Amino acid sequence: MFHSRDGTNTLGIIFFCLIFGCVLGTLGPQKYTVINFFNVIYEVLLKMLMGAIWFTPLGVGSIICGKIISLGQLSQTLTQLSWFIVAVAIGFGIYQFIIIQSIYYLFVRKNPYKYYFSFGPAIVTAFATASKSAALPITFRIMDENVKIDRRITRFILPIGTINMDGTALFLSASIIFIAQMNNIYLGMGELFTIGLSCTVASMSSATVPSAALVLVLMLCSTINAPTEDVSLLFAIDWFVDRLRTTNNLLGDCYACAVVEHLSKSELSVIEEEEAALKTNGQVSAVSNGNCVIDIGTTQTTNI
């Protein structure tokens, strides 16, 4: 049976924002008033955030220390955190080495691991910086020079990769379930479905900066009425887990480019033929305007 729950309707807020943005995009010039308003709000919040960043080391350290002091069984909590890291790493490994490889082979019908190892420099950069935006130039170079993916595909998919955050969605789901288990919160099929749906949608709004997903964890705890205080424990391990999910986010975009190119081969070839025809017609027109007649059969040019 369905029943109501106290707390913030996080899933409703997320879907309202999605629908609001989609409808706003369909309006005419009136929409720029609202867009300018939110741009100003963004600038104000950005300045406030830059001020808070200077106190981040002190603040995060104080939160972690306060949480550790309040724990009654420190060894048990450390064991739970260790198993959380192992579980998340296994999940990332299954996705990275099995799921996306299977998707690539299913659609492209080529060796997926040869494609995977081509992105070694980009994976290392993403792991070191914990941001796939920092690895974007290297990813573009590999796409153009090594794997030869069409530039029209890569220039469209890779820059908007913030809506394709596979690793972040996996991390959010695992974090919410971990916090629920720490507090002995029962999760039925309804709760698990809500967590999966809300984490998938919320991951689309995650920024490509280090530790951005922790803010979403705080917000999503309300979907199951989990205490937000335990999120502070994740700050201590996020420096490592963040690097793992960033590589998954990066590879998700790279494999999406390969699959989209394979499925769009006929459309891309038609566009190339049309562009070639337009260029040919343009050259013939230019030559004709120059008082020349082209003999197609003999490929000779005769001046008038």
Automatic annotation (TrEMBL):
The keyword Chaperone does not apply. This is Amino acid transporter. It is found in: Membrane. It comes from Nesidiocoris tenuis. Its main location: membrane. Pfam families: SDF. Coiled coil: none annotated. Belongs to the dicarboxylate/amino acid:cation symporter (DAACS) (TC 2.A.23) family. Keywords: Membrane, Symport, Transmembrane, Transmembrane helix, Transport. It is a multi-pass membrane protein. The lineage of its organism: Eukaryota, Metazoa, Ecdysozoa, Arthropoda, Hexapoda. The chain crosses the membrane at residues 7-28, 48-69, 81-107, 113-135, 156-180, 192-220.
